Amino acid sequence: MRRPPLSALPAMLLALAVLAPAQAQQGDAPETPASASSAPAEASVAGTAAADAPAHSDDEVAQEEKLYLEALRSLSEGRPDEATSKLSRLLEKNALHAGAWLDLAISHCELGNKAEAERLFDQIEQRFNPSAAILELMANYRASGCKGQRTAARSMSFKLGAGYDTNVNQGSSSRFVTLGSSTALKVLELGADSLPRADHFKVLSGDFNQPLGSRGMLLIAQLRALRHNEVRSQDSDSALLGLERPWSGAGWTGRATAAYGLVKLGGELYQRQAQVLLRAVPPLDLGESLGWSLSAGYSTAIYPTRRYYDARTLDLGTSLAIRSKTSTVVLSSGLLADQGKDARPGGDRSGWYGGVSLVALLGDKAIAEVGVSRQSWRGARIYAKDFIEARRDQDTNVLRASLLFPVGTHSALQLEVRRTFNRENIPLFQYDSRWFQFSWRTDNW
């Protein structure tokens, strides 16, 4: 069921403009906030003259307004349960906050608490003499039945593409490599399977997002299938299932995500992965043009056919978004720590990453994106005794660009290109690739 025509934000504006002046005209205030959220409908009203209400200091007023804005944000983002809690706390501080009374009633209605919402609507009518606009708003919510509403619609998107990759197997850039111990080195020529192999490919992917309940919980499902024309050993299928939930506290906001995925390579199970990720936005007022966030993630990767490559990775990152009317620049960076099994070649790794991307509108016909990123790893010990006696240093630089051309309401055509430079101190693992893909995508179904 959709929300009635007026949303929570217009309700707040109307409440401030119309109800607030009525506070000074009333001979008594609404009942105490404790009874506002938990007392039965037949409870008596605690009369308190508005003129006798204690004066609030500037700090108290600022704290109340901050709490009210946080509650409105929770309500507008589809988290009426959080809004209800914050509004109840606000009314404990200021029982004469007319806007909070109205939004608390709306929150209970959206949670499906019909009896409590109706009681609060009645109290507003009796004690605040609301205007015709407020009465119409409440009538719309009453007409909805307060059965609990879907806070966001499910969405699906699909992408069908074809492209070309000059190095589908990440083959070595060096045809001849030197292997062995420092006292017995050998120069070997790599076989064809270890050298770069180019191929055309086709890819189909889909994303599905389903809201769960009224707390902003989101179920996420992703599927992807990649097929090559000739190098079938690099065909892959992947599936991911995750849950994401918004959170807030002490002025901070963010989202917590947990996900589990499987990857098949060449028709065999290649990897099982699990991840938890916490994203957080600090309580700083940076204006509309800036957005700063922090992230912390922990993931595990298990390779059923190569168990000595199993890994556990910690990722601590930050990003800064700089926005204008027609473009957004995102700067990101972070630190990495990768713990492997004792038998893993090279042992544990530490690293870092950084990048910058630009998304810009090109008139009303296209959306362009360009970006550059770098990821560096450093091994803790020599890669393999008597075979590759060096600690592995890996630096991967990626350049990418895309053009998106909207076609109709839900569809778009997209051209993407990518250039990868993987530079390492062990020539066997060093590779380059050029990749491009042309896709048709459909979103927001």
TrEMBL record:
Residues 22-60 are annotated as: Disordered. Residues 1-24 form the signal peptide. Residues 22-46 have a biased composition (Low complexity). The keyword Kinase does not apply. It holds the Pfam family TPR_19. This is Tetratricopeptide repeat protein. It comes from Massilia aquatica. It comes from the Bacteria. The keyword Signal applies. Keywords: Signal.
